Amino acid sequence: MSDRDPEASDAGIELRVWRQFLTLADTLHFGRAAGQLHITQPPLTQAIQQLERRLATRLFDRNRRSVALTSTDALMVEPVRQLLRQAAALQTRARDAAAGELGRVRVGFISTIGFGPLPLWLRAFRERCPGIAIELIEATSDVQLKAFERGEIDVGFMLHAPGLAPSARVPLQRLSLGVERLVLALPDSAAWAAARRLRPGDVLAQPLVIFPRSATPSLYDAVLAFYHRHGVTPVIAQEATQMQTIVNLVSAGLGLALVPEAMTQLQRAGVVYRPLPGALAAGAPRCETSLLWPGQPAPAVARFVEFVRALPLRPLRYRSG
């Protein structure tokens, strides 16, 4: 059988015991310390004796009339004080995290909303919830869906054809942020593009710069269906994933593009934005932006979703080009 003191186990010393130690070190009086701890003196005396046995050292010099710190005790006071402060901070941190006041939200977003209201929304959210860190991840809708499946993002701003929100292999909730029109991004070097009134035939005859179907299938199909309704199969001059790149390709004269109205915020030399001419405007494709998130979000994520839900900025509106 072992002669080891059962109280000298390797288990950690409870914070309660450290509070008792620190209170006695501050008061140097068992009676006053017990009163501050709202216990009687015998349990305090017993707790200090057990702590000394656990540490295999004497912490207090005491007799019938006085209590004094030993050299060991004096060296321990400040570390114990810091320990208790850190423990209190952890409790507060845990409560804040559970209440959605503290945490991290990984936000996937498509570039169009980055050119629109997203920066203002993030600033307002930061002011309201300074304890929540936002991590921004710019990605197309298809990339965001895969990130949801891998647990790499918490919410995602995605672009799609109206009413045809993308679906993932994991359950997602959705909040529509509104529908906006598609406008023409035209190379301003072309004489036909500078005309006061665009002719539908000129527009439909131009090579098309567009995002790949894999990025946003529903919107890609809506754009091609628009051309087909007018009896035209567009010549795809170039595909590009990012809307900024599409606009840059238009500026180089590769063709025209149909882009969300948000992109009119991106002023690029060589590009002019125009609405579709009247004969083409009726039944022209539109796009919808949605916020998606998992069915059981963490508290900080739920706080971000509720913030977006309460925004007075929907439906999305942008300055026309």
Describe this structure in words.
41% of the residues lie in helices and 21% in strands. It has 321 residues and is α/β, with parallel strands linked by helices. The chain has two domains: 15-98, Winged helix-like DNA-binding domain superfamily/Winged helix DNA-binding domain (Arc Repressor Mutant, subunit A), CATH 1.10.10; 103-309, D-Maltodextrin-Binding Protein, domain 2 (3-Layer(aba) Sandwich). Helix 9 (217-229) links the parallel strand 7 (208-210) and strand 8 (236-239). Helix 1 packs across helix 2 and helix 1 packs across helix 4. Residues 1-10 and 317-321 have low confidence and may be disordered.
Quick overview:
The strands form 3 sheets. Strands 3, 4, 5, 6, 9, 10 and 11 form a 7-stranded mixed sheet that branches. This protein has a two-stranded antiparallel ribbon with strand order 1-2. The protein has helices spanning 15-27, 30-37, 41-55, 71-98, 111-115, 118-128, 141-150, 200-205, 217-229, 243-251, 278-281, 299-309, and strands at residues 60-62, 67-69, 103-109, 132-138, 155-160, 172-187, 208-210, 236-239, 257-260, 271-274, 286-294.
Helix-strand blueprint:
Blueprint: H1 15-27, H2 30-37, H3 41-55, E1 60-62, E2 67-69, H4 71-98, E3 103-109, H5 111-115, H6 118-128, E4 132-138, H7 141-150, E5 155-160, E6 172-187, H8 200-205, E7 208-210, H9 217-229, E8 236-239, H10 243-251, E9 257-260, E10 271-274, H11 278-281, E11 286-294, H12 299-309
Parallel strand pairs: 3-4, 3-5, 7-8
Antiparallel strand pairs: 1-2, 5-11, 6-9, 6-10, 6-11
Helix pairs in contact: 1-2, 1-4
